[in-house]
UniProtKB/TrEMBL annotation:
PANTHER family: 50S RIBOSOMAL PROTEIN L4 (PTHR10746), LARGE RIBOSOMAL SUBUNIT PROTEIN UL4M (PTHR10746:SF6). GO terms for cellular component: ribonucleoprotein complex; ribosome. It comes from Candidatus Micropelagius thuwalensis. The lineage of its organism: Bacteria, Pseudomonadati, Pseudomonadota, Alphaproteobacteria, PS1 clade. It comes from the Bacteria. GO terms for biological process: translation. InterPro entries: Ribosomal_uL4 (IPR002136), Ribosomal_uL4-like (IPR013005), Ribosomal_uL4_dom_sf (IPR023574). This is Large ribosomal subunit protein uL4. Keywords: Ribonucleoprotein, Ribosomal protein, RNA-binding, rRNA-binding.
Amino acid sequence: MKTDVTTLEATKSGTVDLNDSVYGLDLRADLLHRMVNYQLASRQAGTHKTKNRSEIVGTTKKFGRQKGGGGARHGNRKSNIFIGGGRAHGPVVRSHATKLPKKVRTLALKTALSSKVKAEQLIVLDKAESKDGKTSVLRNQLTKLGITSALIIDGSDVNENFARAARNIEKIDVLPVQGINVYDILRRDHLVLTKAAIDSLEERFK
């Protein structure tokens, strides 16, 4: 399929062919859901930890009589039922990451790209460059393009001035093509790809 290429000045700069096997897939909400869960689970630190009974520092001396005390027969106060004791079945340090086959991850990324095309939320830029790195200038340019929330994907290297200009604009994310991912695509209204990014993605999905 063909789509128009635009510049930051909101002028047309030719057309580009989009591969139907990448940008023309049917929407698969189940794939997107699995992929987003996979990404967010991998981001969790998993450093939450409580002390169990064996990790509490304290005496193990039996503090009550075996019989005649009118209560249960406790060995020591490190039990979880006492204040200052260990916690039963508390959280431990662990990884929350799950496994997802590479083919599923690839298909989910293609589906996310296709969803932006079907929703007419894909914009192809000739190039993402800024001469002076001014945030105000870039904000005005994005406003002309009708962009208020977008993920902007450039080639293997992001223009330093452009990244600096976009840094202080709310809901505008700039990533190199290596960093493209399903979660960031879906969390913004528009997906902006440069011609360099499209070429890199075509090579990646061959």
